[in-house]
Automatic annotation (TrEMBL):
It comes from Streptomyces hokutonensis. It comes from the Bacteria. The lineage of its organism: Bacteria, Bacillati, Actinomycetota, Actinomycetes, Kitasatosporales. InterPro entries: CoA-transferase_III_domain, CoA-Trfase_fam_III, CoA-Trfase_III_dom3_sf, CoA-Trfase_III_dom_1_sf. This is CoA transferase. Signal peptide: none annotated. Pfam families: CoA_transf_3. Keywords: Transferase. PANTHER family: SUCCINATE--HYDROXYMETHYLGLUTARATE COA-TRANSFERASE.
Length: 770
């Protein structure tokens, strides 16, 4: 193989296929191993599943384990979703990065449990965060739990390749459940830091004053924004349209009062919003720099002028003709877009099974440091998307220096409405929200509104490998630090920008939050029980997705630099990141609508009430054999031979009968007891777990040591969400708690930039440093 084109062999599963797709987008050679009849996705959704997940991959059908072993001997990465694992086949291939992706991980009492997207979303905590508080939990559409596992697996593959530069390959254990549990925004943090479990939020964000609103022709995502300016601008608009009602009274200038009576404020806003077409309202709101977006269905995405202008979409050549599909989360390498992919026939690349001798690598000592040890990251990010990216980098050994500015105070340090703490909500060092995503980092407090502050920042840039920021698209240029200038300061710099819309395109200046990005990207529109009962994704899933994709981009760019010597600008658009997680929905066209917790070809699949308050069980029955087993477990064996329930299609037409039988059984049992009974017969099932249950009761996460206790100098000791991917030779870890504001200013400036103690003191006296 060449330095620049690693070979990835994929043993596919629903939890690996997105990883393979992402690696295709990075330009890697991905070889799909198929059975003689072809991968099952070739027959799902009329073939759309294969088109989306596997276009661009080469195809082989090994006739024997020896042929597969020969292929593996030429590979750099084995992306392994096989049911039993390929450890024996990979044994002795010391340079192979073996990424094993399973629903629950390789160790722990539930490592052999069956998992589907719905069941992993339930046991990982995602389902508990979506839906109405008095109704059943609701899954996010398009297999978001599977896709979280996939992007983590892609990151794991690249971390393994990076570690292999100084040591051998290794086994990497990726638990899909842990990937979900690490991606809940404040879901578990509210329990860890405030001893509370928030109810499902319905259509209103539990922290930020945002939600889902009805427009005259659909829905809008948006709200009051996160700053006094946004509230004032919205109020001015309401006044102009004579729609402000009583919101002009002085009491509503207080954000605490607005939060306390948010239902009333939202009603006034809804009365106004409901008279507008969604697209027109969003355009007018954005003209006032207000964070609103139309809720678009996936088939409407090609009409989005921002996605079109940035060439987001990909053309796929299939035997039936050319299709337009979703593109990749970011352009790579060096701004290159993958614009065309081909669907390969089964076994089209058999010659790969008889390739030449395996690549030889020089002898190396076993690496003992985390994969990103020695990489310095300058972190200019704030709130969630950016800090989540740099958290991943820090967890795997990068020296992440968080630059905190008095001119741009991070709301997760300072805003009372985002503060998660048992103590006063005024101390910037005690917020559990901030402290979770900023562990393992160092903090410097620098006033970048001053010329001297910018000079200090430029010197830090000169001594860094990576710079990450998630400002709006014009901020860095206004600071005199556009990419051309960054490249002049540091030619090898990897610069990752994470604006909502990207740095180019007609909407590059749009104001965006996670909920508005999810609205524009198609995710919100499919999160519901039907076209007229949309609930939407209210928590920061879009931020988590953008953060993970930015972390993947960063490690890919570091690998690219190692082979070419060149840095680059990754212009990541958070809109494109979430749109790239919309699965087969674009290929499905206008018929794709919200479908609740159901599955297009499995039946039953759903969430059923159990014994206890707000206790639920997620169940997926994937075939008729599992249906027969379920009928035995629930004491209804006669249903297994009932003509009305013999097949999945029949059961889909008899949902009242099926759901009633299953629901009558689950209501008599605790959710965990019901799950264990079904799992004992190979049926995917799991309790819907909230933050308390994840931390206190989940035996699998406990066995994996997922929650990690560290002592914070001000907030005290608390548990952190752990690292969901485990590299067996060079593991990442939660090494230390988040930094106190500005705690490392002196040390960083002396060690990194070589400042003298006298210069540091002068800068502090001038107010440049805190």
């Amino acid at each position: 193989m060449s330095e620049t084109v690693p070979r990835v062999v994929e043993l596919p599963s629903p939890f690996t296929r997105f990883a393979g797709r992402l690696l295709v987008g990075l330009g890697y050679e991905v070889v799909l191993v198929e059975p003689p009849e072809g991968d099952g996705t070739r027959r799902e959704q009329g073939g759309d599943a294969f088109v989306h997940w596997h276009a661009g991959k080469r195809s082989v059908v090994p006739a024997s384990p020896e042929e597969l072993r020969a292929l593996l001997s030429t590979a750099d990465v084995l992306l392994d979703g096989s049911p039993g694992g390929a450890e024996e086949l990979a044994a002795g291939l010391d340079d192979l990065v073996h990424v094993r992706v399973t629903p629950f991980g390789l160790i722990g009492p539930r490592s052999d449990w069956q998992g589907t997207d719905l069941v992993v979303a339930a046991l990982g905590g995602m389902l508990a965060q979506v839906g109405d508080p008095d109704g059943p939990p609701l899954r996010l559409p398009e297999q978001q739990a599977e896709q979280l596992a996939g992007v983590n697996a892609a990151i794991a593959a690249l971390l393994g390749l990076r570690a292999r530069r100084t040591g051998p390959g290794q086994l990497v254990d990726v638990s899909a459940q842990a990937c979900v549990a690490a991606a809940l925004e404040a879901g578990t943090l509210a329990y860890l830091h405030e001893d509370r479990v928030p109810p499902r939020p319905g259509r209103v964000h539990p922290l930020v004053p945002h939600g889902l609103f009805r427009a005259a022709d659909g829905y809008l995502g948006g709200g009051l924004g996160g700053s006094p300016r946004m509230w004032d601008a919205l109020l001015d608009w309401l006044r102009e349209e004579d729609a402000a009602a009583d919101l002009t009274e002085p009491r509503w200038q207080d954000p605490v009062e607005r939060k306390k009576h948010q239902e009333h404020v939202f009603k006034v806003v809804q009365d106004f919003v409901g008279t507008w077409p969604k697209a027109e309202f969003a355009e007018r709101a954005q003209a006032r720099k207000l964070p609103w977006a139309a809720v678009d269905l996936p088939h409407e995405l090609p009409d989005n002028p921002q996605l079109a202008a940035r060439d987001f979409f990909t053309r796929v050549r299939t035997p039936e003709g050319e299709r337009t599909d979703l593109g990749f989360p970011f352009a790579f390498p060096e701004g290159h877009r993958v614009r065309e992919l081909e669907v390969r026939d089964v076994g089209a690349d058999q010659e790969l099974l008889h390739a030449g001798p395996p690549a030889e690598y020089p002898a190396r000592q076993a690496a003992v440091q985390p994969a990103l040890h020695g990489i310095r990251v300058l972190d200019l990010t704030w709130v969630l998307a950016g800090p989540y990216c740099t958290k991943v980098l820090a967890d795997h050994g990068a020296d992440v220096i968080k630059v905190e500015s008095a001119g741009r105070p991070d709301p997760t340090r300072f805003a009372p409405f985002m503060h998660l703490s048992r103590g006063p909500h005024t101390d910037p060092n005690t917020n559990g929200y901030f402290n979770e995503v900023n562990r393992n980092k160092r903090s410097i407090a620098l006033d970048t509104r001053t010329a001297d502050g910018i000079t200090v920042l430029r010197e830090l840039i000169a001594h860094s490998d990576v710079l990450v920021e998630n400002f709006s698209s014009t901020v860095m240029r206004k600071l005199g630090l556009g990419y051309e200038e960054l490249r002049r300061i540091n030619p090898g710099l990897v610069y990752v920008s994470m604006s909502g819309m990207g740095h180019t395109g007609p909407r590059n200046g749009w104001v965006s939050y996670a909920d508005t990005v999810s609205a524009s990207g198609g995710l919100t529109a499919l999160t519901g029980w039907g076209p007229d009962d949309v609930v939407g994704v209210i928590y920061g899933h879009g931020d988590i997705v953008a953060g993970l994709q930015a972390a993947l981009a960063t490690v890919a760019a570091l690998e690219h630099r190692a082979g070419t010597g060149r840095g680059q600008h990754i212009d990541l658009s958070q809109l494109e990141a979430i749109a790239a997680h919309m699965g087969t929905s674009l290929l499905g066209g206008p018929k794709v609508k919200p479908v609740g917790n159901t599955h297009p070809s499995w039946s039953p699949q759903g969430v059923y009430r159990c014994l206890g308050a707000d206790r639920w069980l997620a169940v997926s029955v994937r075939d008729d054999t599992e249906w027969v087993a379920l009928c035995e477990v629930i004491g209804r064996p006669e249903l297994a031979t009932d003509a009305r329930t013999l097949t999945a299609d029949a059961r889909n037409h008899a949902t009242d009968l099926v759901d009633t039988a299953l629901g009558e059984w689950t209501r008599t049992l605790p959710a965990d007891v019901a799950a264990e009974a079904l799992q004992a017969h190979g049926i995917p099932a799991g309790a819907v777990q909230d933050g308390r249950e994840l931390v206190e009761h989940d035996p699998q996460l406990r066995a994996r040591g997922f929650y990690v206790r560290k002592e914070h100098p001000v907030a005290g000791a608390f548990l952190h969400e752990g690292v969901p991917i485990h590299l067996t030779r060079t593991p990442g870890a939660v090494r230390e708690a988040a930094p106190v504001l500005g705690a490392d200013t002196d040390a960083v400036l002396k060690e990194v930039a070589g400042f003298s103690a006298e210069r540091v003191q002068q800068l502090r006296e001038a107010g440049v440093l805190r």
